TrEMBL record:
Protein name: Response regulator
Transmembrane helix listed as a keyword: no
Residue span, Response regulatory domain: 6-124
Residue positions, PTM 4-aspartylphosphate: 55
Pfam family, one: Response_reg
Length: 126
């Protein structure tokens, strides 16, 4: 049996964190949640993850800035982890904008949890 895939959820809304955890834990993913980009980078120094769900608008360090920092990490496994943006401001960005900053994909808010799950599975089944 393979071990559960680990997903890091970076989101400043406790409501969205809890809903996302419930949806993903049902699929047996191991979920860790943090509230900002600085905490993402701290977690990555000590742990490995299979996917990051990254809110774009967070305090201290936003998702775009954090993604760029991850892509610059020396550890190639961590630097290339799939990162999916979660954003309510998708109209301010194009998929190309997200790709240029190093994000692999995005899911817009309000979250469609079927789409979120399908997007997570797309990256974790590779």
């Amino acid at each position: 049996m393979t071990s559960a895939k680990k997903v890091l959820v970076a989101e400043d809304s406790s409501v969205i964190i809890n809903l996302t955890k419930n949806v993903l834990m049902f699929e047996k993913y191991k979920i860790t949640a943090v509230k900002n980009g600085k905490q993402v980078l701290e977690k990555l120094t000590n742990e490995d993850f299979d996917l990051i769900l990254m809110d774009i608008n967070m305090p201290e360090m936003d998702g775009i800035e954090c993604t760029k920092a991850i892509r610059r990490l020396e550890d190639p496994q961590k630097a290339n982890i799939p990162i999916v943006a979660i954003t309510g401001n998708y109209k301010n960005y194009t998929l190309d904008d997200f790709k240029k900053s190093g994000l692999n994909d995005y899911v817009q808010k309000p979250l469609d949890y079927d789409l979120l799950l399908a997007t997570v599975k797309k990256y974790l089944s590779q």
